[in-house]
């Protein structure tokens, strides 16, 4: 019967009355057996939300299970209950009401232009980096894997400079640095709203059954799992530098090179806030991102993402796209989301509310400070200047006071032999 | 019967596994050959005494005599094959010239019949040779590198440097008791906070920067997955790393392993089959990255701690030289840089040449950098530098051209810093986790984590005018 109560609690979490109310409140009441099971109208609303977000629509299945449960109300249908609980876990978060009118198109909120780029003739990252001997991606599949890459010389130093600069900026803004693990148990990743099974999973699995983290948000969320914080501690802001592993592949021409890779380094922001704080915390994270990219002096735009781009956990999400002059396209370099209590419920992250000492679920938020490969594309393409690349002023102190990236003749060119006859 | 089949199956799997590095012609259709190692039979067997000594000192279960017998059989068959092929070539040439001159058909028929016979003989001999080749070559690839003259051939390591004696404190708090700095769950999962987290990033970056500025190293960022063929080429035990399950694996033998970009093996991808001009030598690389060796730390057990953890930030060094003498000098230079780095922390540490029995088959010498770990009451390895000679280069065809022939390059390298273990030791030794005193550290004013709120506000105000 305890299980039934839990499932009913879950049902209730997903079927609060008004949209606004559903979005910004947390459930603390305990469900009793006498409370009505989710209504058909509420299921309609959940289905509409899932469809609007282009999310897998499992509401028909939930409907079937609820009906089965109602029919066998007095017997313990453990299997049905478990299935229902699993299906409910798969439902996406609610959606911010302002996004409903977006018609699946992002809304450009602002554009920041710091540089003048030539309309034509700008070279692409791969061409520039290869000419300077600072990058290798070809003929590596059999040795270090599909889409693997080496950054050499000043390009590798630039990666570390970006990390240091981002950390400096974040710690000055009250973010605490945490070293995080990259190998995580499956349940933590799934609690963050990522599927680990199925054909199109983006999650790498190891021989031990554990998974590789796709973003440090997962490790950080796992760190706070089952923790009860106090309201005074909120908003709690942390940051991590981690290696991110993504099994996704892309055959798209515009995503060639290091634009979409299986492994990369990222500085991530993660925050835990009260429901009252979460909207302003998201704005703070967004502003920090904007500030970072302004300092890098690249051209970028801020987008408010429509429901179909939110994934499962986000209630709302901002993306930042940088202009990549070599590719002549906008490329996503950062994003930040408010996951409200979606992850917190799955990971049991709570806080004790000061006013009534009630223990309620917190809200979680995350944002990308710097994801290296795409930022490198943006910086190198934006700062190209004939035979060299200018280094953005803010990164110069982290680059041993070098002001430009030039060809490195100490790095061998990629001249390969096929075979050397054995003696 | 079923059990027997299982055992045979397992043996088959094991045998197949080895073949990622060497695949005989009969299996090349089903298994894609990615690399053909240079097999230096003459060079390997030139000094049999040294090879035998290396096998014995490492405690390897290899009978050199048996390998040599297999080599003799392999050579006999190869010579036979060569003779047949030479004869076939002669017949082909004769056939061509006879056809052109329009000579007697009788002789032509005879030659054609001989040619056919030879073709069949070659084919059947090759079929006969494949198992002999398979058997011998895999034994050959298991032979270890010869040992360096400095490598202790006894069970005892050789001390070559020591800084500060270990402290005598009777009671030491374990680093895991510092809950404000470390949250340890298991060997795969731990978190570090506050100064420990900053030191984790800053120390790694400082050391890499120090190698770049003071050692003329080129910094790199390397991939995290390394395929089986390179691990075999480096004679890395496959159990050291996690196997990555890939959904669409094209070559079932050449699976990927999670080494981390801060592992030595990760450098091998960029030098496999690479031919370089002598002008870039010595080639010195240094990389910052993760290292995920799941066996390396287990010697610091049995109690799981940061000393036994799989994941760590690491600084990995890699040097390629043309000669063995240059390789020796480079190893010394890397050690000198490492000594300066650890001395700046004023931590009790030592450098030892590890006993032969602890080396992997590809290493001829290993210097281990060890910091004193009070909770374990002994030294733990926080870095190591190995000399591989040209053993690995031959297997991955890393070469330089000289007078129309190939010189295989001598490799020196290894992780010079594992941050996780160093942080554990520093906490226990009561040494402050301050990266700004390290050589190579960024000198950008007071460290940010040390700033109070007023200083932070002031800094923010100053930043507005930048």
From TrEMBL, chain A:
UniProt keyword ATP-binding present: yes
Marked site positions, Important for serine binding: 368
Annotated binding of ATP, by residue: 246-248, 261-264, 332-335
One GO-annotated biological process of the protein: seryl-tRNA aminoacylation
Keywords tagged on the record: Aminoacyl-tRNA synthetase, ATP-binding, Ligase, Nucleotide-binding
Pfam families documented for this protein: tRNA-synt_2b
EC class name: ligase
Chain positions recorded as L-serine binding sites: 215, 246, 268, 366
The protein's Enzyme Commission number: 6.1.1.11
A GO molecular-function descriptor: serine-tRNA ligase activity
Domain Aminoacyl-transfer RNA synthetases class-II family profile: 158-397
Alphabetical list of InterPro entries matching this protein: aa-tRNA-synt_IIb, aa-tRNA-synth_II, aa-tRNA-synth_II/BPL/LPL, Ser-tRNA-ligase_type_1
Protein name: serine--tRNA ligase
Organism: Drosophila hydei (Fruit fly)
Lineage: Eukaryota, Metazoa, Ecdysozoa, Arthropoda, Hexapoda
Encoding gene per record: LOC111602623
TrEMBL record, chain B:
Domain of life where this protein originates: Eukaryota
MF annotations from Gene Ontology: ATP binding; serine-tRNA ligase activity
UniProt-listed Gene3D superfamilies: Bira Bifunctional Protein, Domain 2, Serine-tRNA synthetase, tRNA binding domain
A single BP term in Gene Ontology: seryl-tRNA aminoacylation
UniProt domain Aminoacyl-transfer RNA synthetases class-II family profile: residue ranges: 281-439
Keywords: Coiled coil
Sections of the chain in a coiled coil: 74-128
Name assigned to this protein: Serine--tRNA synthetase-like protein Slimp
Record lineage: Eukaryota, Metazoa, Ecdysozoa, Arthropoda, Hexapoda
Encoding gene, per UniProt annotation: LOC111596501
């Amino acid at each position: 019967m305890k299980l039934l109560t839990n499932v009913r609690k879950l049902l209730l979490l997903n079927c609060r009355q008004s949209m606004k109310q559903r979005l910004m409140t947390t459930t603390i009441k305990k469900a009793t057996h006498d409370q009505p099971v989710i209504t058909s109208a509420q299921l309609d609303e959940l289905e509409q939300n899932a469809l609007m977000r282009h999310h897998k629509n499992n509401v028909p299945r939930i409907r079937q299970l609820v009906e089965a449960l109602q029919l066998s109300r007095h017997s313990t249908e453990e299997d049905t209950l478990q299935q229902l609980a699993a299906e409910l876990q798969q439902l996406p978060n609610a959606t911010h009401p302002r996004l409903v009118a977006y018609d699946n198109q992002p809304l450009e909120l602002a554009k920041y232009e710091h540089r003048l780029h030539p309309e034509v003739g700008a070279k692409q990252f791969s061409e520039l980096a290869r000419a300077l001997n600072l990058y290798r991606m070809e003929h590596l599949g059999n040795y270090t894997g599909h889409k693997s890459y080496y950054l050499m010389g000043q390009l590798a130093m630039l990666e570390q400079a970006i990390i240091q600069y981002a950390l400096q900026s974040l710690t000055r803004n009250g973010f605490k640095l945490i070293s995080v693990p990259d190998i995580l148990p499956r349940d933590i990743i799934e609690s963050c709203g990522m599927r680990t099974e199925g054909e199109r999973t983006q999650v790498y699995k190891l021989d031990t059954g554990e998974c590789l983290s796709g973003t440090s948000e997962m490790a950080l969320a796992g760190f706070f799992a089952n923790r009860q914080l106090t309201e005074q501690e909120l908003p709690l802001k942390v940051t991590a530098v981690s290696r991110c592993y993504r099994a996704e592949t892309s055959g798209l021409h515009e995503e060639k090179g290091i634009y979409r890779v299986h492994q990369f380094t990222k500085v991530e922001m993660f925050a835990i806030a009260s429901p009252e704080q979460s909207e302003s915390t998201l704005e703070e994270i967004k502003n920090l991102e904007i500030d970072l990219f302004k300092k890098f002096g690249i051209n970028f735009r801020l987008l408010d993402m429509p429901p179909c781009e939110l994934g499962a956990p986000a209630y709302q999400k901002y993306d930042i796209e940088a202009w990549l002059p070599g590719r002549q396209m906008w490329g996503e370099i950062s994003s930040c989301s408010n996951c409200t209590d979606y992850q917190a419920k799955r990971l049991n992250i709570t806080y004790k509310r000061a006013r009534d000492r009630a223990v309620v679920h917190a809200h979680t938020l995350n944002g990308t400070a710097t994801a290296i490969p795409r930022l490198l594309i943006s910086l190198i393409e934006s700062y190209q200047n004939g035979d060299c690349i200018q280094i953005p002023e803010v990164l110069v102190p982290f680059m041993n006071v070098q002001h430009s990236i030039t060809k490195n003749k100490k790095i061998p060119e990629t001249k390969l032999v096929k075979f050397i006859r054995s003696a | 019967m079923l059990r027997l089949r299982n055992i045979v199956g397992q043996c088959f799997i094991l045998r197949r596994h080895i073949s990622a590095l060497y695949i005989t012609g009969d299996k090349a259709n089903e298994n894609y050959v990615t690399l053909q190692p240079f097999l230096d039979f003459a060079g390997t067997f030139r000094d049999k005494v040294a090879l035998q000594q290396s096998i014995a000192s490492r405690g390897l279960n290899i009978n050199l005599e048996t390998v040599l017998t297999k080599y003799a059989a392999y050579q006999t068959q190869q010579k036979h094959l060569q003779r047949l092929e030479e004869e076939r070539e002669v017949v082909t040439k004769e056939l061509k010239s006879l056809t052109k001159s329009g000579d007697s058909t009788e002789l032509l028929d005879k030659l054609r019949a001989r040619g056919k016979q030879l073709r069949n003989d070659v084919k059947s001999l090759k079929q006969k040779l494949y198992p002999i080749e398979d058997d011998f070559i895999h034994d050959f690839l298991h032979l270890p590198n010869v040992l360096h003259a400095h490598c202790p051939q006894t069970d005892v390591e050789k001390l070559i440097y020591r800084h500060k004696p270990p402290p005598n404190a009777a009671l030491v708090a374990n680093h895991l008791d510092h809950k404000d700095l470390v949250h340890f769950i298991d060997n795969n999962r731990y978190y570090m906070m506050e100064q420990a987290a900053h030191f984790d990033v800053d120390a790694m970056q400082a050391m890499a920067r120090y190698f770049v500025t003071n050692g003329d190293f080129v910094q790199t960022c390397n991939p995290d997955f390394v395929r089986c063929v390179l691990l075999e080429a480096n004679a890395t035990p496959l159990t050291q790393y996690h196997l990555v399950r890939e959904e669409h694996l094209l070559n079932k033998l050449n699976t990927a392993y999670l080494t981390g970009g801060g592992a030595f093996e990760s450098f091998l991808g960029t030098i496999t089959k690479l031919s370089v001009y002598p002008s870039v030598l010595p080639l010195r690389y240094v990389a910052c990255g993760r290292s995920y060796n799941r066996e390396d730390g287990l010697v610091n057990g049995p109690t799981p701690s940061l000393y036994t953890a799989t994941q760590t930030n690491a600084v990995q060094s890699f040097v390629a030289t043309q000669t063995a003498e240059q390789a020796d000098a480079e190893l010394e230079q890397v050690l000198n840089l490492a000594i300066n780095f650890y001395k700046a922390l004023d931590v009790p540490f030592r450098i030892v040449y590890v006993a032969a029995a602890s080396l992997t088959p590809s290493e001829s010498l290993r210097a281990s950098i060890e910091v004193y770990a009070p909770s374990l009451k002994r030294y733990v390895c926080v870095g190591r530098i190995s000399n591989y000679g040209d053993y690995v280069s031959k297997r991955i065809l890393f070469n330089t051209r000289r007078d129309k022939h190939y010189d295989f390059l001598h490799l020196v390298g290894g992780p010079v810093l594992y941050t996780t273990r160093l942080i554990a030791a520093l906490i226990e030794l009561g040494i402050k986790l301050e990266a700004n005193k390290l050589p190579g550290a960024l000198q950008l004013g007071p460290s940010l984590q040390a700033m109070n709120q007023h200083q932070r506000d002031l800094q923010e105000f100053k930043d507005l005018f930048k």
